[in-house]
Specification:
19 strands; binds fe (ii) ion; elongated; six-stranded mixed sheet; 3 domains; alpha/beta; OB fold (Dihydrolipoamide Acetyltransferase, E2P); about 30% helix; Helicase, Ruva Protein, domain 3
């Protein structure tokens, strides 16, 4: 598809140049035509041909344009920095990049034995307990073992990890013991809704009452995030947020993706679009850069490019056309060439040679990165499948609800042992210890954005059309949309490149 498209695109470019040349009554010799095709930029081709027509007239060259004449003009344009289609009034280009990687994971040896697993869950419990204690009044507090032995009628609070959820009771645990907490029939809508949203292995506070030697739930306290002001920067630059390119898939929307790259180079339809593009200083790609190979059974039947190395090579070729003042930050998703379990270290260096591509920064999934002081928590979002399974109000078409729940539970992938592979080393790196300004995910291929407690949530959609698997699952993707966040005022917009 890639090569077909290139050929097709070149033909269209050639036709456009010849038509415009004919309108100006000039003839292009083969060399001139070839240079114009190579340096084609739709925003400036017409003015370039105007100049060539003028030059041909001046030289009395019978309106025949030579390769040398074109080369001279293109060379001049290159020196004035417009030949690659970058508008001379670029704003982001003049702003120095300010990137700080605040949190990221490198591959490291780990033990997956029972003791490491135990330590992992204790670490999760300890970290989220400490968030809960700092955010809520948990007095009088009792560990679960103590709570069970309180006299009838006592009330108190405890911190638990959910083991199982049933209609009338929850099985919960803390590092010492396991217990049942009954859900009263008349518990009220608010509590019922909160319990319905809970997912296994999440850590929450519970206010309880002892009755007839049983613990009854009175309320559930989410660790949650504090309400904060929307994070903003001093510099007037923007971030383009996207994900799930799935290069190599037969369903990859190559035309739309290239349209976006052209838009970044100044190919917008009008001045407004162009000035919006020129403010882009960063692009964040939240995983699934390529479709990968062997990710699911019989995937090869749906692949256009069947070699993972080629997939990256061809994608990076397109990304290299993005103006180099734009920094591109990438993290792996479940389709990328990286270990599958979370947290994922950066994509294997042999595929994304970041150092060879000056404007590319390859980070882990998840990671936290500051751009001009605005903190982005970037996470591919694989655990949304589990959250959609276990939590009411979360679904594939509303990823923002899953994102909100992750923040409320202060964990990116709470459910252990279901669809999302988790690396159970001795510490749990997926606890949301630091609150971001922007929370950016992908994976479910549905574009959604809103604000939760001053945090901009963005699930950035995809560049892949609907697959057979998505048809079976009833998922309707929203491809070819990019989100743009202006760092100076926090305003957010979406642009469709369909
Ligand atoms: Fe994806
Ligand atoms: Fe994914």
């Amino acid at each position: 598809m890639f090569l077909d498209w290139l050929t097709h695109d070149k033909e269209a470019v050639k036709r456009k140049i010849l038509t415009e040349a004919a309108r100006r009554k000039i003839l292009l010799n083969p060399e001139a035509l070839s240079i114009l095709i190579e340096n084609y930029d739709e925003t400036s081709i017409e003015s370039l041909l105007d100049k060539l027509a003028g030059r041909a007239g001046e030289l009395g060259s019978s309106h025949v344009v030579s390769g040398e004449m074109v080369a001279q003009l293109v060379g001049n344009r290159a020196r004035s920095e417009v030949s690659i289609g970058v508008h001379p009034q670029v704003l982001a280009k003049d702003v120095e990049a300010k990137i700080e990687v605040l949190k990221m994971y490198e591959a490291k040896p780990f033990s997956d034995d029972l003791e490491a697993k135990r330590q992992y869950f204790v670490d999760r419990y300890r970290k989220i307990s400490s968030i809960l204690r700092s955010r809520s009044d948990l007095s009088p507090y009792y560990p679960l073992r103590k709570a069970r032995s309180l006299p009838d009628g006592s009330e108190g609070k405890t911190i638990v990890m959910l083991y199982e959820k049933h209609e009338n009771y929850m099985v919960v645990e803390d590092p010492e013991t396991i217990a049942k907490i009954m859900i009263p029939k008349d518990c009220g809508r608010d509590l019922r809704e909160k319990i319905d949203r809970l997912v296994p292995d999440s850590v929450v506070g519970v206010a309880f009452r002892v009755s007839g030697s049983k613990l009854f739930c009175r309320s559930v306290i989410f660790p949650d995030v504090p309400l904060k002001k929307i994070g903003m920067a001093d510099e007037d630059v923007s971030v383009l947020m996207t994900s799930d390119i799935h290069f190599g898939s037969q369903k990859f929307s190559e035309k739309a993706f290239r349209r976006m790259v052209r838009w970044l180079r100044g190919g917008g339809l009008n001045e407004k679009e162009r000035s919006q593009a020129f403010k882009i200083k960063y692009i964040i790609i939240a995983g699934d850069l390529v479709d990968g190979v062997g990710v699911y059974p019989q995937q090869e039947k749906e692949l256009q490019v069947k070699d993972v190395g080629k997939q990256y090579e061809m994608l990076l070729e397109i990304l290299s056309q993005i103006p180099d003042y734009i920094k591109v930050i990438v993290i792996p998703g479940n389709h990328d060439a990286a270990p599958r379990a979370l947290p994922q270290p950066p994509i294997f260096r042999e595929y994304v040679k970041a150092e060879a591509n000056g404007n590319l920064l390859s980070l882990s999934n998840p990671c936290m990165v500051s751009l001009h002081g605005v903190r982005f928590m970037v996470y591919h979002g694989t655990s949304m499948e589990d959250i959609a399974t276990f939590s009411k109000n979360a679904s594939y078409d509303k990823p923002d609800n899953s994102m909100e729940l992750m923040l409320q539970l202060r964990h990116l992938a709470p459910v252990y042992g279901s669809r999302t592979p988790l690396l159970t080393q001795s510490v749990d790196e997926l606890v949301v210890e630091d609150v971001p300004d922007v929370f950016h995910t992908g994976h479910v291929h549905v574009f959604r954005s809103r604000i939760y407690k001053g945090i901009r949530l963005v699930n950035s959609g995809t560049w892949q059309e609907r697959t057979k698997y998505q048809e079976q699952m009833g998922i309707v993707p929203t491809p070819n949309i990019a989100g743009i966040l202006e760092l100076k005022n926090g305003s957010f917009s979406e642009i469709s490149f369909a």
